[in-house]
Fold this sequence. Notes:
Elements: H1 2-62, H2 69-78, H3 80-114, H4 121-153, H5 160-170, H6 174-187, H7 191-218, H8 226-229, E1 241-246, E2 251-256, H9 261-269, H10 271-276, E3 286-288, E4 291-292
Helix pairs in contact: 1-2, 3-4, 3-7, 4-5, 4-6, 5-7, 6-7
Amino acid sequence: MALQKAKGSIYFEIVIVILVLILVGSIVYPKKLAEQESSNIEVSRFRMDQLQKAGLQYQKYHGTYTDTLSNIIGFVRTSPEYAHYVDSVIIGGLDSILTTLNNFKGQQDFVRQLIPQATDSIMIDSVYKMQNNVKFASRVLAGFVEFVHDRMKSLPNMPMGDMVSAFIIVDSKKFTLDMEIVKNSTKNGELKVAVEGSDAAVAVMSKVGNIIEMVKQKVPDYKNDRLDEFGYCPTTGKPYILTHVDTSVIKYLNIFSPIDSLDIANAESDFIESKLGGLEIANHGKIESGEKSWEVE
């Protein structure tokens, strides 16, 4: 009798474990599917955006649009004219930023060396003016970083995440705040604070320089295999639908998500993903007449 109870207890525990697993699965699985499709939507719209940029570059150098994916991607990957533009404007611009930053660091280091000597009005005025010149020039640099950033933003497959990070720093008050501290502290005789401000300014310049150097190393990867991915929807694997309007008055490359009613019906008929996982898919949107549907919804 005791043995029977023991066996019954084991069976009961097994049933409980199975029910718990089913319960956990009913919560985790739908969440996982929903998160994946949400990620697919984001990726899909990013890819359409990249295709639009590539199409615009194709039109810029050919004078006309194409609605053939291989033509657009092949142009970005193999065009010597486009490669020259990237090398001269983007790489050249990044080189100029790095050169300017190195010059700034040299000037800032020189200011730092002079700070301990700023004990009379002549030296105080000298340090103040030198620091003010560096600060003014740094604002000009911020404008140039913005110029290179905007040119990169219009091109496909550029390392924009890193470039945005650099631009945010040079465009912020922090980029010149330490320089302002050096000026004011030197003027007020707070030389230790001025030295600390100068060191902080150099640290910020070095940080920006490191980011820009990283961007420069990544730019040549615009020709990599990721270009091929841009042509396909991550949910269905189908190519995006491209059409172009190219008249003497209007020129547009239109890009449409390939998800149609059949794809939606197929997803709904999948018992595991649709019924158990609660997965729902929908068209990811379009870029038509230059407007992104997900930005005007």
